[in-house]
Amino acid sequence: MTIAPELALLTVSTVRVEDPGPLLALLPADSPLAWVSGDEGLVGWGEAARFDVTGPDRFADAQDWWRAVDAGSDVVDEVQLPGCGLVAFGSFSFDPLTGTSSLVVPEVVVGHRSGTWWVTTVDRPAPVLRATAAPRAPGAVRFSDGARSSTAWTSVVADVVERIRDGQVGKVVLARDLEAQLDEPLDVRWPLRRLAAGYPGCWTFSVDGLIGATPELLVRLEEGLATSRVLAGTIRRSGDAARDVTQAAALARSSKDLEEHGFAVRSVAESLSSHCRTVDVPAEPFVLHLQNVMHLASVVSGVVADGATSLGLVSSLHPSAAVCGTPTEDAMAVIREVEGLDRGRYAGPVGWMDASGDGEWGIALRCAELDPADPRRLRLFAGCGIVAGSVPEQELAESAAKLVPMRDALQS
Fold first, then answer.
1. For this structure, is 171 an active site residue?
2. Per-residue pLDDT tens for 195-217?
3. pTM as predicted
4. Integer angstrom CA distances of residue 396 from 157, 292, 400
5. Residue 216 appears among annotated catalytic residues
6. Options 78, 171, 259, 284, the catalytic residue
């Protein structure tokens, strides 16, 4: 655990404002924070407080710190909606044994929900809200293999398929990375705007140099109702509407993809059941159509009975079978042995929470992580769920499709 400095009293004020325009257009270039879906969500900037933590107790340690911040804050909130008052943005490492996780309390948060806009300030007067200067285009971007070449990665997939068929594990999610090199430091607002425009049904995020647009909601907690959107089972879109209809029907019938999806849904339902009176699990998934791929998707929900916060639910849910595999410990052991890369915060929880414990946490997918030592370099990530019926070459094609959103977002 990283020890936080002694906390000072935070003076927090949330007031209603008129529509200031698109949320992402308000962001400055320096360390922007964002969690936006469509035209709703939260953006923030500045840093009133932060907490960095490592180790297997990272969620509990972060929750303790957040309670201490709340207890030491003077909050006036005239809007009283989720995301108002004291708010922290957070991103957590995938593996508890590696990486640093963080909570950041911005100096300014601007939010929009159901026709209501607000601004929250911490220890400063409310700013004049106006669009900032347009983001700088990235210019030329050079992509190269990350930890493994495509050929080497398919060999790892083949090895994992054999382990699954031998009964060592049920499902393993394997990630691969791609390096991106720019001539100038990246203005992260550029890819954020492109992602939000191209994937309005996803959650576009920016937290501490981790940027992306995730289609998968790990958990939303609002007034006691917990909701999770589970994705597993993927097919690339063809670009032809009629053919996509046929492919969507094939995806919905695919035994391989239904098996993969079933593992993920059961993982989430079992984790939520330890906190909820009842858990509602759909009888069958629906097909979620995104710009470049289609996923099998299910929305799992439950009423929280034990007072758990959104971060407490995250602690129980992560890592789900959708990003790790099943059984969890066996899948994680295989990942550590064969994957050959440090995921960092890829496939970890990312999102926000307020002082009541409500919040929204996605899984950091379709994302990239800036090199903290060199803002001209990024690592892009994609992952695939490997089951007994997986074909290595098809999994490589699926991973390439999942890299498309971030690759495209970096283009000028």
1. yes
2. 999 999 999 999 999 999 999 99
3. 0.94
4. 9, 15, 6
5. yes
6. 171
